[in-house]
Design brief:
Blueprint lengths: L10 H8 L5 H6 L2 H11 L6 E5 L5 H7 L4 E6 L2 H10 L6 E4 L12 E7 L8 H11 E12 L4 H10 L18 H8 L3 E12 L4 H11 L1 H9 L2 H16 L2 E2 L2 E2 L1 E12 L8
Parallel strand pairs: 1-2, 1-4, 2-3, 4-5
Antiparallel strand pairs: 5-9, 6-9, 7-8
Helix pairs in contact: 1-5, 1-10, 3-4, 9-10, 9-11
């Protein structure tokens, strides 16, 4: 499914991220602790207009709505947006397909913006940074959760990436958003910035259950499997299971996933026409 609100350069990404559908909610459940940290960092307040970028199935959006804010959730993937609508029925959240690199909202539309492990995957970080500064009102807030460089999620992505063909024009590393110096380059002109670090604890019942969650609910893996031979698919499954088994201890499997929270406050004057 394509949508006029998604840039042509991101149509394939839209298909990829939407492929998990409702199954992506289980992926979000595995990072619920980090999402909660990001929501607390944002400090949503009753009556505020808040945008959740790369909302997925709406896990963060629902937590924010519970605090009395008026929430809009956007995502490239139509499949996860449809799931978000079903899972959030009655929550009063406006879910729609949208592109973080070309938001359809007016200047200064929101009191706050959040993105949990979402905008870090955009192909054009500078465009995302510009859009954040445009749609957040002066004095407004942003909270971003990004995976840390060199952590277990980074290693998992390297494993998954080893099964992909080499890209001619690869996107910047999403883990650059886990580097404070890079975030300052992107956002420092328009935001006052602060950083917090945390660790998310992923505790699957088994390594096989972890594979089931990601192979059916995580869009990049779902679409990758469509392109692999049976032999390569089986090899990826074995490697993925082995990766998680390596995190087994007396407590079972506990994958420690370090992340960085970016807390930002918009500075400068309104961009609205006087």
């Amino acid at each position: 499914m394509t949508n006029e609100t998604v840039l042509a350069s991101n149509i394939q990404a839209a298909r990829t991220w939407g492929a998990g559908g409702e199954g992506y909610d289980q992926v979000s459940r595995g990072i619920a602790d980090a999402i909660a940290h990001a929501v607390d960092a944002l400090d949503p307040r009753p009556g505020e207009r808040i945008l959740d970028i790369a909302t997925g199935t709406g896990w963060a959006a629902r937590r924010i709505a519970e605090r009395g804010a008026t929430v809009t959730g956007i995502d490239l993937g139509a499949g996860v947006i449809e799931a978000a609508k079903q899972l959030s029925n009655g929550a009063g959240i406006d879910f729609r397909v949208g592109d973080a690199e070309a938001l359809t909202f007016s200047d200064d539309s929101f009191d706050a913006v959040i993105s949990t492990f979402g905008i870090m995957f955009a192909r054009e970080p500078e465009a995302v940074a510009s859009e954040l500064a445009r749609v957040v009102r002066p004095g407004g807030r942003v909270a971003l959760a990004n995976w840390a460089v060199g952590g277990s999620v980074h290693e998992m992505f390297k494993l998954i990436g080893s099964y992909k063909p080499t890209e001619k024009n690869p996107a910047p590393s999403p883990f650059d958003w886990g580097k404070p110096a890079r975030v300052i380059e992107l956002l420092g002109q328009h935001f006052e910035l602060a950083f917090e670090v945390g660790t998310s604890f992923f505790r699957p019942e088994s390594a096989e259950k972890a594979w089931a969650t990601f192979s059916t609910g995580f869009g990049p893996v779902v679409t990758l499997l469509e392109s692999l031979s049976d032999e390569r698919e089986a090899a990826l499954e074995r490697d993925f299971i082995s990766f998680h088994e390596a995190h087994r201890s007396g407590e079972g499997i506990v994958v420690r996933r370090p992340y960085v929270i970016v807390k930002a406050q918009r500075v400068g004057e309104s961009r609205k026409a006087s």
